[in-house]
Amino acid sequence: MPDEQREPVPRVDTGELAVAHAFLSFQRHCVLKKAAGLSDEQLRKALVPSGTSILGLVHHLAAAERFWFGHHLAGGPEQGNHDDLDEVTAPDRPAAEVIDDYRAAIEASDRAISAADGPETLMAIPIDGTRKSLRWLLAHMTTETARHAGHADILREQLDGATGR
Fold this sequence. Notes:
Blueprint: H1 16-35, H2 40-44, H3 54-73, H4 95-115, H5 134-160
Helix pairs in contact: 1-3, 1-5, 3-4, 3-5
């Protein structure tokens, strides 16, 4: 029987920001769990015509965390370039480095979230001419991360049969 990685969703219900952050954290954890225990070759393996791999998803999400929380929310410089938002990882970059980079991006994002005054805090850098709220940003990043966690779940099942969120 294949390994099942199922865990319950967060049970936090103490306030809007706490709930939103808990669900984003849960989705981030799901992505990292899909990468855990796989070889470099498995992490890089593209099993769909688009070329998507688990490592490519992790790479993309690290760049997205920095772009949205570090740049737009906190007002920091835009790091990297828009190619970093692609789901392609340089073949000579070690998988462990990509995963550690995602963890570091999450930590930096969490610091930016903690520094905000609440869900109504507006981004420092507008998107499309509008300074969206942290509420919007958390919803956006949770859906983005959940979508890619689902992709990673399917890829992981194809690799070794492990299933579950």
